[in-house]
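Notes from hallway chat w/ T.B., transcribed later so I don't forget. T.B. wanted the structure written out for a chain they're using in a teaching module, and asked if we could keep both sequence and structure tokens in one place. Agreed to drop them here.
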Amino acid sequence: MNQHLLISAVPFSTADAAPLSTIKSAGISYTLNPHGRTLSEEEMISLVPGCHVIIAGTEPITAAVMDRAPSLKLIARVGIGLDSIDLEAAHKRGIQITYTPDEPAPAVAELTVGLAIDLLRHVSMSNRGLRKQIWDRPLGRRLSESAIGLVGVGRIGRLVGLHLRAFGARVLCYDIAPDLQLSARDGFEWVDELDQLIEKSDILSLHVPLTEKTYHLIGVAELRRMKKSAVLINTARGGVVDETALFNALSKGEISAAAVDVFESEPYAGRLIELDNCILTCHLGSCSVDCHTAMELKAAEEAVRYFKGQPLRGLIPVGTVAFNPGV
């Protein structure tokens, strides 16, 4: 029986031909995402019949999608987030899932640092003002004079901390499983309680997966604990922040500003668009040529291994639980 691959991730192999060449060289029959954007659940349902493997991005792979693909045996995720996949449904159907957790970290970390500088020095705000013929030179702050609170200190949070230490920033850390090898000697200060971290931080930067425990981790109460001069950066997952609470906090001046790269519903069309003190980007965290190509290539190699009957190398850890209130 012919086996088929659906590449629903987008973009895919646009910056570098290697990921798609890997699939072609293996003689695998495949279908590319025909819309050139993130697919809806209905579009996925229309595309999955007959496929055995999906190379997936952030499009929803729900139980309903899986029901339309009885031959599906592998979802090879381009990236690290798993909240768009119904993991329980996949497990029940015997569908394996791989991901690429290491490859996006450098790009996400650098974007986070860039957003921190932008927020502290009012770069985007000045750009918008000047285009309206407003010549304003607000005083900003430097990273070396700031305390950065990292919520989650895994692959990405650790890199963010190391980058910020190079600027002389004070790095405060909170994680449910602290890596104490990152010690004060390295410039990492561990804080026992999330509330303490929030209260001490000039920049609060989020680097946790979306789970039942982290859904709306930053809400009304947490935003009110922040300094009025503080800023929030979310390059993790949209559901980690209550977007309505963030809009209200920014509108009322309860916090100074925010930068948001990820949203509960993407593409985003919510009220944060109305605010000048909120930088919005289109889930660009992993979108550097090198990191995105590496992610795509790892996912393509997993697909090839499946079709050749070889062991998979990037299987998600046993017992992994993801959460998506929309799934």
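Follow-up for T.B.: The longest strand covers residues 147-151. Might be a good example for the class.
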